[in-house]
Specification:
It is a single chain. By secondary structure, this protein is α+β, with helices and mostly antiparallel strands. The protein folds into two domains: about 10-170 and about 335-370, Aminopeptidase; about 175-315, Gcn5-related N-acetyltransferase (GNAT) (Aminopeptidase). About 35% of the residues lie in helices and about 25% in strands. It has helices at about 20-25, 35-45, 85-95, 120-140, 150-160, 180-185, 190-205, 220-235, 245-255, 295-310, 345-370, and strands at about 10, 55, 55-60, 65-70, 75, 100-105, 120, 145, 165-175, 205-215, 260-265, 270-275, 280-290, 315-320, 330-340. The strands form two sheets. An eleven-stranded mixed beta sheet has the order 2-5-6-8-15-9-14-13-12-11-10. Strands 1-3-4-7 form a four-stranded antiparallel beta sheet, with helices on both faces. A hairpin with a 2-residue loop joins strand 3 and strand 4. The two termini are about 35 Å apart.
């Protein structure tokens, strides 16, 4: 009688080392976890050793069958993560210690909650967590971090001894609205009036919009969007994380998951926003403009996307990281999570104490925000559970 062999661990240097079918069987339907999305980041050079995102994906195999996986990167900085640990890195440096490299499980440049421990059982998920910690120790990394895991993965990570950090995002919920006016009717008078004023200002400026999906997005549209995206980063004196090659690959590989909203004025395109979506969720991602117009950002990034969600029956619109200004436009606060393991015992203890205080502050902050929702008291959507996939 043959004794079952334990799963074998392999560290992959990139998504090219695993077939799309094998990876996607574990990743499910979320577009950001798909082989196509992660491979596009790597193949375009946006994710590489040169950009400070060295792929080190952990995989478990039973013979030639992939049974579990963890997207994982060795990082020599903290850019593009949206869970800020710069103060931790500074504290290490001031004490003569190196915080980088660190190991990070995340979707690069994408603060979207979802599965990270891609496995069928908690036993396999726990094996992945321990393998990640062992990998961090083997390469001399200061720490292992898992960003925006869903509720099930968060529980496994916490049970494995990682510290949980809380954050806040703003999400919009579709309660079966018949149209945008029906949605506005659920809001308080002042907030409804403000949104109508913003939309009217855009309309009176002669700005119109195209909602492009799938193969309706042409090569010229991708080039225009990338120019807008680059311009906005430069205006903020930042370097763009993504490039035209990535966006073109994304459009080619995931045409059924891409929504591009293009704003035009006087016969010329002036701004664009790019979103990803599936049957249940629209993810607000990237935006840029070549011209300024009052309320253009809100219309392009929020109101047009809300109209798309209502028309398609999409339940949830994740508006991306940060942004209290989203509250007045119908996005409600939702708690997010990240998990952290630090090799240095004293720093781990100090961070744990800090996170306990920070979590209390986050809970208080969410409570205060929920006291000032833009909705009528009798019609306040319940945001609970909207960030808990995984």
């Amino acid at each position: 009688m043959n004794t079952p062999q334990p799963p074998q661990l392999r560290v992959l240097a990139g998504m090219h080392e695993v077939t799309p079918a094998a990876w996607n069987r574990l990743a499910g339907n979320q577009p950001f976890l798909s082989h196509a999305f992660l491979h596009a980041l790597e193949a375009s050079g946006c994710v590489s050793d040169e950009t400070g995102w060295l792929p080190q994906h952990l995989t478990l195999w039973e013979g030639e069958h992939l049974v579990a996986a963890l997207p994982l990167y060795a990082k020599n900085h903290s850019y593009g993560e949206y869970v800020f640990d710069w103060a931790w890195a500074d504290a290490y440096q001031r004490n003569g210690l190196a915080y980088y490299p660190k190991l990070l499980s995340a979707i690069p440049f994408t603060p979207v909650t979802g599965p990270r421990l891609l496995a069928k059982s908690d036993t396999q998920r726990t094996l992945l967590v321990h393998a990640a910690i062992e990998q961090a120790q083997a390469v001399g990394a200061s720490s292992f971090h898992c960003l925006f895991p869903g509720a099930a993965d968060s529980a496994v990570l916490q049970d494995a001894g990682l510290m949980i950090r809380r954050g806040v995002q703003f999400h919009w919920l579709n309660h079966g609205f018949a149209g945008f006016d029906d949605y506005l009717a659920a809001m308080s008078h002042d907030k409804r009036k403000k949104i109508k004023q913003e939309r009217r200002r855009v309309s009176e400026a002669g700005i119109s919009f195209r909602q492009l999906t799938g193969n309706d997005i042409r090569a010229a549209d991708w080039a225009f969007f990338t120019g807008c995206y680059d311009n906005t980063y430069r205006q903020h004196r930042s370097t763009p994380y993504l490039n035209l090659d990535f966006f073109q690959r994304l459009g080619h590989a995931l045409p059924d998951n891409v929504l591009m909203i293009v704003a035009s004025q006087g016969g010329h395109d002036i701004a664009a926003a790019l979103n990803l979506y599936d049957n249940t969720t629209l993810y607000g991602r990237y935006w840029g403009a070549h011209a300024y117009s009052p309320a253009l950002h809100f219309e392009t990034c929020y109101y047009q996307a809300i109209e798309f969600c209502i028309a398609r029956g999409i339940r949830l619109f994740e508006g991306g990281a940060q942004g209290e200004h989203k509250l007045a436009r119908g996005f409600l606060p939702v708690a997010t999570a990240s998990a952290h393991w630090l090799a240095h015992p004293r720093f781990a203890q100090a961070v744990e104490t800090f996170l306990e205080r920070e979590s209390l502050g986050v809970a208080h902050y969410i409570g205060e925000l929920n006291e000032h929702t833009p909705f009528k008291n009798t019609c306040v959507p319940d945001p609970s559970g909207s960030a808990g996939g995984g």
